[in-house]
Amino acid sequence: MPVIETAALTKRYGPVTALDSLSVAIEPGIVGLVGANGAGKSTLIKVLLGLLDPTAGSAQVLGHDVVTAGEQVRGVVGYMPEHDCLPPDVSATELVGHLGRVAGLPRAAARERTAEVLRHVGLYEERYRPIGGYSTGMKQRVKLAQALVHDPKLLLLDEPTNGLDPAGRDEMLALVSRTGTEFGMAVVVASHLLGELERICEHLVVIDAGKLRASDSIASYTRTQQLLAVEVDGGAAARDALAAKLTDLAIAADVDGRALVVTLPPDDEAGMYDAVRDAVADLGLALLRLEQRRHRLSDMFSEPRPEHQHPAQQGEAAGV
Amino acid sequence: MSESVIYDIGYQRYEGQRLGRRSAVLSLYAHGLRGLFGWGRPAKSKVLPWLVVAIMFIPVIVLIAVMSRTGTQVERYDFYPFQLQAPLAIFLAAQAPELLSRDQRYQVLPLYFSRPIRRSDYALAKLAAMITAMFALIAGPLLVYWLGSIATISHHPGDARHQTAQFALGLANGVFHAILLGALGVVIAAFARRRAFATAAVIGVYLITSAVAGALSGLPNNNGRFGQLFSPFTLLDGLRVWLLHGKVIDENAVPSAAYGIVSVLFVLAFVVVLLRRYRKIAT
């Protein structure tokens, strides 16, 4: 049974359509929800929680309708918002314990579970200090802890690595991965960073402009996504000469700045490396770079949307 | 003997009891009440509420000391809260934002509204916490005063009964004060994301309505007397006089029942506006 199922789910804010007739079924496991900023990821999560009412269509979470049975949904879901959401003047223990009680835990259980989840996310003595003094990494951990305190069946994480440095990102991803795999909790992680999701998710749901672009297992994406970038010395002339040579060999090559990009066939990657190397050698060019690369996020969409191709986003999305 | 080892048992599933909304709302109420007095908060959050508590208790302690020294009985159940409106107003202006604006400012509301409670539960639990805190500030000194009075009366046994009846009226008066003022403070704080704005707005309502009521009372032929109904000070004083003395202040004043009716209407309006605010508030 899918943990989340939406049918023609639509959400409009005035003239802006954030979710456009989105129909998707999400199975248990760690699922990545990927899309550029503004693609509708946060809106989808908020509709699933009943924080926003859909304009049209319906959605079910763990068999409960999000509009008519919002309280049942929220009783079994843990939510980690994207933005800062922690009051600075209370300790992590005070806040998480209180939110556990609001989620329905008895007093003693809330206290016990608060200690457990804070330890699980890696907060120790500092949990008794006011949150205002915490680093971004510690705050993200508190946000995850409050989503876990009532032991939800489904965890909705909105950009859990927001604002973290590379080491912090690795730790957060490892934590999310452990929570999902070791305890069998269904996890949906929304992110605009494809590279991060690839590392921890089993399944990817791609949305763009509120529409479903793709929903498939990670393996199927990475299989079709291996690319080879090749760069030779000699500027554009040498690059174009190589492109012509490859075309003669029936190898499709796309120009990407100073480099050429060819697709690696999954069944014969080594053969493609050899063919490209030989082509460079035949032309007598100096090989500067030959590296494996993955599709950028925007390449995964069947019709790339120009307004989403900001250089900064692409750079991040391409990070592996 | 086996060696002792510390196991990291890590994350555990929870199979125990889950209580319903009632428990969740009670927890919100208790958390709000704790916060109003700075419990579970850093020391600087405790300064103002406990300063107000001290100010509320000092007069009654002095009064009892004087009564026991001189053996005279002064009946001052109407002293609270009328003579101490100022510290009550300060508490309201400072702490209502602590209760509500803070959650908006730091965007904590999504953490609450993504849990199995209703938005109205949140608003009403916070309102109840504010009313309780205001009532405690009024009732605490009254209780001390009543106990002190009983202890200092040695002769007429009928006096004790009379004192107790007056104490009960004083408490009822305190309830009205707490509800009206609490609802006023909460409804204002619900609209302010920043604490300072909410504090200024609460103080502003007190000052402006009092000034307007005062100015209107200067109109010829007592035409401006209904202005009394729109300032918290004069409205609650009218209510107090009606309740404790069963009479109006003077012949030309507003009919006593009007104070009661207007108070009830104000509270209803505040609650409606508060619930509407939290139904619409963006998360």
What does this structure look like?
The complex is a heterodimer of chains A (320) and B (283). Helices cover 38% and strands 27% of the residues of chain A. Chain A has 11 helices and 14 strands. Chain A has helices spanning 41-49, 70-75, 92-102, 107-120, 136-148, 166-183, 194-200, 218-225, 235-248, 269-283, 311-318; strands spanning 4-13, 16-26, 30-34, 56-61, 64-65, 77-80, 154-158, 186-191, 203-208, 211-217, 226-232, 253-256, 259-263, 287-294. A 6-stranded mixed β-sheet of chain A has the order 6-7-8-3-9-10, sandwiched between helices. A 4-stranded antiparallel β-sheet of chain A has the order 2-1-4-5. In chain A, strands 12-13-11-14 form a 4-stranded antiparallel β-sheet. In chain A, β1 (4-13) and β2 (16-26) form a beta hairpin. In chain A, α3 (92-102) packs across α4 (107-120), α4 packs across α5 (136-148) and α9 (235-248) crosses α10. The two termini of chain A are 32 Å apart. The longest helix of chain B has 34 residues, at 119-152. Chain A binds chain B through residues 46, 49, 51-52, 71-72, 74-75, 77, 79, 81, 83-91, 94, 98-99, 101-106, 109, 113, 116-117, 119-120, 130, 146, 148, 150-151, 178-179, 182-183, and chain B through 8-14, 16-21, 23-24, 27-28, 31, 40-42, 45, 102-103, 106-108, 110-118, 283.
TL;DR?
Chain A is an alpha/beta fold.
Ordered list of secondary-structure elements with their pairings:
The complex is a heterodimer of chains A (320) and B (283).
Chain A: E1 4-13, E2 16-26, E3 30-34, H1 41-49, E4 56-61, E5 64-65, H2 70-75, E6 77-80, H3 92-102, H4 107-120, H5 136-148, E7 154-158, H6 166-183, E8 186-191, H7 194-200, E9 203-208, E10 211-217, H8 218-225, E11 226-232, H9 235-248, E12 253-256, E13 259-263, H10 269-283, E14 287-294, H11 311-318
Parallel strand pairs in A: 3-8, 3-9, 6-7, 7-8
Antiparallel strand pairs in A: 1-2, 1-4, 4-5, 9-10, 11-13, 11-14, 12-13
Chain B: H1 21-36, H2 44-70, H3 79-82, H4 85-99, H5 101-105, H6 109-113, H7 119-152, H8 157-189, H9 195-217, H10 232-245, H11 256-280
Helix pairs in contact in B: 1-7, 2-4, 2-7, 4-7, 4-8, 4-9, 7-8, 7-11, 8-9, 8-10, 8-11, 10-11
